[in-house]
Design brief:
Rossmann fold; nine-stranded mixed sheet; two-stranded antiparallel ribbon; globular; DNA binding
Length: 316
């Protein structure tokens, strides 16, 4: 019957765009605002340590769990579910709580009588911590049932799946071989098979639960290998089963260590890093300045932004 109603339905282009934008809204938040991100996209947020990657995830999460309007007050949120998978095991829930309170207080100036709104928003934020690749795989394989249950409970869809960060177990898995419990006839889990399974499970989730995926990745900036060592580096990568995806048309400013199967999943890539400069807000207050650059698609310029208590702000 639903299919028949869809076939028989008639709407103008303006009505169709309005319906799609409300059902599957774009994410337009600094410093990710240059390219509209929608469900089905898989974004890799790469940067060195202390480059505000997790802060960007928190800002996106707050925007998703806030309602568009509450008690006549406009908040501009999406009122959707967010799943945060913490692989770094360093997530600060207090920072999320503080930023959410700042957003709630912006139109009102006080948290008085808004505890109910705060609690409702926090219930839309789901958090899972994984300590190794096997726990990560188990989380992905059981995520469909949890999201289905949460969707029925809150009567809203999931908008964001966040992975912070995607590579902490990579080097441990390279030197390890896992043998699943039970039958010895089961295939052992290597780095390649783990990566393939992770990508396969995320693809399945995107079919069953259309959502936007944002994964952070910690990198080391700079030309790690000189020209003389380029061939040796390529040989070492190929010997360990990793092919470089860097081509002459796109030279990354860091060494790519994730396997090609993961790179095939990525639709957007952003580089963030801390700047040596500081922004003077007041005579007694300086804010660290950060830079963001779109690598996929390549936009050819950088945005500057600062992180404040109320969130991330782009500096012109």
């Amino acid at each position: 019957m639903a299919a028949k109603r869809w076939i028989d339905g008639d709407e103008t282009a303006a009505e169709m765009l309005s319906r799609v934008s409300s059902e599957r809204p774009f994410l337009l938040l600094p410093p990710l605002h240059r390219v509209p991100l929608r469900v089905g996209n898989v974004v890799e947020l790469a940067g060195p340590s202390s480059s505000a990657k997790t802060q960007i995830l928190i800002q996106a999460a707050v925007n998703c769990i806030l309602p568009r309007e509450w008690n006549g007050v406009h908040y501009g949120g999406l009122e959707r579910l967010v799943m945060f998978i913490d692989l770094d095991c360093r997530f600060d829930i207090l920072r999320l709580s503080e930023m959410l309170k700042h957003k709630i207080m912006e139109p009102n100036g006080s948290m008085h009588d808004h505890e109910e709104l705060f609690a409702a928003c926090m219930r839309r934020f789901m958090y899972v911590r994984c300590y190794d690749s096997l726990e990560f795989l188990a989380t992905l394989k059981t995520l469909h049932h949890r999201l289905k249950r949460e969707k029925a409970m809150h009567n809203v869809n999931i908008q964001l799946l966040m992975i912070d960060s995607i590579g902490p177990f990579h080097w441990v898995d390279r030197g390890s071989t896992f043998f699943p419990l039970g039958s010895h006839n089961r295939k052992c889990l290597s780095l390649q098979s783990i990566s393939e399974t992770v990508v396969q499970e995320i693809r399945k989730l995107l079919v069953l639960h259309p959502m936007l995926v944002i994964a952070t990745k910690e990198i080391v900036l700079g030309n790690v290998y000189g020209t003389d060592g380029a061939k040796q580096n390529k040989y070492m990568l190929e010997a360990s089963g990793i092919r470089s995806i860097t081509s002459s048309s796109q030279q990354l400013p860091y060494r790519e260590f994730m396997p090609p199967i993961w790179q095939s999943l990525i639709t957007h890539k952003i580089l963030v890093r801390a700047s040596d400069d500081h922004l003077l807000i007041r005579p007694d207050q300086e804010n660290s300045l950060y830079l963001s650059e779109w690598l996929l698609p390549s936009l050819g310029y950088q945005d500057k932004f600062v992180v404040k208590d109320a969130g991330i702000f782009v500096v012109s």
